[in-house]
Amino acid sequence: MNDDPPIAVMDATCALCSWGARMIHRLDRSGEIRIAPIQGDVGGALMRKNGLDALDPDSWLFIEDGQVWRDFDAVIRVGERSGGWGRLCSALRAVPRPLRDWLYARMARNRYAMFGRGDMCALPDPAFRARLLQ
Predict the structure, then answer these.
(1) Which residues lie below 8 Å from residue 86, measured CB to CB, with a gap of 6+?
(2) Which of 18, 20, 42, 44 could join 118 in a cystine, given CB atoms 3.0 to 4.6 angstroms apart?
(3) Residue ranges in the chain whose pLDDT is less than 70
């Protein structure tokens, strides 16, 4: 077991990822999950450590107790970890992994066109900002 807090790593300039970060903040009543924007030092280092390109942030990571989940698996695990309504993310397990991976890849490549850009680091909520690892 690892004493480090669980960390969600995502693109801070993607509106969908920014929405996901806000959902983590709302659903994680424990307040333990930290959020590391890929554009920050911590997020970039975690991407590189896991063999991903921080300059081409098409992946979402969730790291807990030394275990790493990617893409939709990361979303599912964050939902399960958060509890409450977040557990609904478990329904994604019903989608076969190859289809889940294909859907995630399509959404990730087209996220700015589909959802626009956002800036999670500009959100004014001090409790939310306390979760951010720069």
Answers:
(1) 23, 27, 28, 78, 79, 80
(2) 18
(3) 1-3, 121-124
Provide the residue count of the chain. Answer: 134
Q: What is the 3-state secondary structure (H, E, C) of 51-95?
A: CCCCCCCCCCEEEECCEEEEHHHHHHHHHHHHCHHHHHHHHHHHC
Q: Are 14 and 111 in contact (CB under 8 A)?
A: yes
| Per-residue CA distances from 30 to 26, 57, 62, 84, 95 (Å) | 10, 27, 16, 12, 29
Residue 110, CA distances (Å) to 17, 57, 58, 105, 129 in order? 13, 12, 10, 9, 27
Q: Give the helix/strand (H/E) hosting 8.
A: strand 7-10
Residue 57 φ then ψ, to 5° = -80, 75
What does pTM read for this prediction?
Answer: 0.86
Could you identify the residue written with the tokens 């890929």? 38
- In angstroms, the CA 125 to CA 89 distance is 25
Q: pLDDT averaged over the chain?
A: 88
